[in-house]
């Protein structure tokens, strides 16, 4: 005798008040995949699906029960918990549940009897997507949100601006997208490569596109954290509005959107004009990314990374600014710039988050740090009482090659295999318990210099993002004790789900022929420092 529960045409769905987002998702996604109407029912229909809030469970926690006589019950500590429970229900139903339409209509959708009690280790389980270096059209971002939801990841850090492109419509500064959203050509491969893609590259999200993205994410209990990267990584903005640059030493009218990679010397000028300009940008950003959209929506990322100080050292105007403000040096000038936006955001009920360089020169109390240059910035920030997101490049930069072989497409950075990512530990052992509580969570960063389209992004993200998701969600043992064999066994089932989702992951045996990029230079493994 088989022991379990079948879902079929007669299965009803009942959702308690507060669980409607999961009700909608179950009908639209699971229902569509399996051809199940999931008609509205009542709480006591035998064999039905029930969604319930239960305040004895914690934030994002859920309990999933499958009982033959009663049906499926998902209890969540909050609406997000119910949603994550529904993701687990989909996993239990097999790979066809990850398609968009039924391929085997009428097939029995069997579930085993079970109880799953589950809760996340970290509240911030993030992915950074760099849509500046290579633009990902809106559909791709919505698909990314679906892939994140399937992996119980809940923060999409959207890197919207950089030297190579400005991707968000700002109504009061239209040239940011008219000029800044496209470049004439693109370096193909690592910056040392001699090759160019001579096709213009560009694109941007309209304000309504971003409202749609934020709403689509919120419906999936995902926060979209926008990043406007200042005062470095700003050549696209300066190309659009030359007055933003250090005009006393550079002819900024001659700058165009950057077509190659690396750290760019053209940074914002520390003037009142620049401050007012970016306050205007952030005013529109705050409208597009409202603080109450999802759990971490108060945060606005202001970048702050890799801002070379050469132009400020050379610029009489910047030096006069340093003197006028009574600052010690150019590092203090950057700190002043960051603090300006920290107070500006705080006055509007928002929280600043930035790359760990923002710690240099002292950081305002409410600000949080994305620790990317290893753990050190995160440790220093947590010790100083700041919240931290751990995303060290040595561990979770998914642009880095995932195997040492020559076949990897445009390989850059460290070799970081699926196993390496599975052994990533977000909380460094040097933190005390109180300090460790400042680690909001972890984030995998997907920089796209060498990822020209969605298939390349898929390849770099998967399967490693599945390992990352487990690290961010589960209470795993210390890295050396993690059961990699068990993870890989479970990955076998997961590859079938990724196939059903249409994800162009890296197969365990290496890239498929069309996933290679022969002849396009990456960065040799034995070359100078491993940075991109
Ligand atoms: C970074 O990778 N520059 C944050």
From TrEMBL:
Sequence ranges assigned to domain Beta-hexosaminidase bacterial type N-terminal in this UniProt record: 6-119
N-terminal signal peptide: none
InterPro entries: Beta_hexosaminidase_sua/sub, GH, Glyco_hydro_20_cat, Hex-like_dom2, HEX_bac_N
Alphabetical list of Pfam families matching this protein: Glyco_hydro_20 (PF00728), Glyco_hydro_20b (PF02838)
Residues covered by region (Disordered): 507-532
Gene3D superfamilies named among the record's database cross-references: Chitobiase/beta-hexosaminidase domain 2-like, Glycosidases
Coiled-coil ranges per UniProt: none
Keywords: Glycosidase, Hydrolase
Protein name: beta-N-acetylhexosaminidase
Lineage of the organism: Bacteria, Bacillati, Actinomycetota, Actinomycetes, Kitasatosporales
